[in-house]
Amino acid sequence: MSENSEFKKQVVSDEDWLTARQRLLEKEKQFTKLRDELSQQRRDMPWRKINQDYLFETEDGTKSLTELFAGKSQLIVYHFMFGPDWEEGCPSCSFWADNFNPIVTHLNQRDIHLVAVSRASLDKLQNYRKRMGWSFDWVSSFSNSFNSDFNVSFSQQEIDSGQAVYNYRPSRFPSSEAPGISVFVKNDRGEVFHTYSCYARGLDMLNGAYHLMDLVPKGRDEQDLPYTMAWVKRHDCYD
């Protein structure tokens, strides 16, 4: 927004403001109800069995997908964009990951573990995690097909041909790596099932900062930028 137009809003009496707020409250209640219904539908999605026990490089040695659950029955995987030949993690994924550290303990209390997965080497991931001041589990999938199987890593041929499947459709995705989230559950027999994945704007629900921005008059204030999130930097790179 320009400085001259950013706060050109109607100013009303207290009574009229309350009327407007009550009108909006009704819509917020409708949205909350619809969101609850959608969340239930998401939880009611059918499962698919994972028959391949992928092996990942972790700070505690090689671990299988089953072991990434860390004793819990539910696992959330954040697909963090960090390619094998990259020197740093994606700025936007870093923005999202800044939300993870404080919540892992709370998730653990509800039988949920959270882990980030990238194709970069474990050394790169650990060095970048230290730089960012994070402590959540972050593992390397370089030696397996996990990223490509969950449609967050693409070959150059897939990109050039427009056949990189992202967000459930073929596209000419502009990068070899993409963000996403996948959810898994493990039963008492140790069998692992994939219950949900989402990508693109579906990831907004993980970012508390964006929800706070949506409350203020300027909102996300991205409409005049060359692309969404053009303003985002790694948190140690802001002036």
Quote the average pLDDT. 95
**Percent of sequence in beta strands:** 15-25%
Radius of gyration: 20 Å
For the sheet with most strands, the description reads: 6 strands, mixed
> Helix count?
7
- Would you list the SSEs in sequence order as H and E? HEEEEHHEHEHHEEEEH
The CATH superfamily of the domain at 47-208 is identified as Glutaredoxin
CATH architecture of the domain at 47-208, please? 3-Layer(aba) Sandwich
Overall form: globular
Count the strands? 10
- Helical fraction: 25-40%
Indicate the CATH topology of the domain at 47-208: Glutaredoxin
Q: Which sequence of strands runs across the widest sheet? A: 1-10-9-4-5-6
Q: What distance separates the N and C termini?
A: 21 Å
Tell me which oligomeric state these chains represent.
single chain
What CATH first level of the domain at 47-208 would be assigned? Alpha Beta
Provide structural commentary.
Pfam families: DUF899. It comes from Vibrio paucivorans. The protein has 239 residues and is an alpha+beta fold. The chain has a domain at 47-208: Glutaredoxin (3-Layer(aba) Sandwich), CATH 3.40.30. Helix content is 29%, strand content 21%. It has helices at residues 14-43, 91-97, 104-108, 122-132, 146-149, 156-161, 208-213; strands at 48-50, 55-58, 61-64, 74-79, 112-118, 137-140, 164-166, 169-171, 180-186, 192-199. A 6-stranded mixed β-sheet has the order 1-10-9-4-5-6.
Brief synopsis:
It is built from 7 helices and 10 strands. The protein has 239 residues and is α+β, with helices and mostly antiparallel strands.
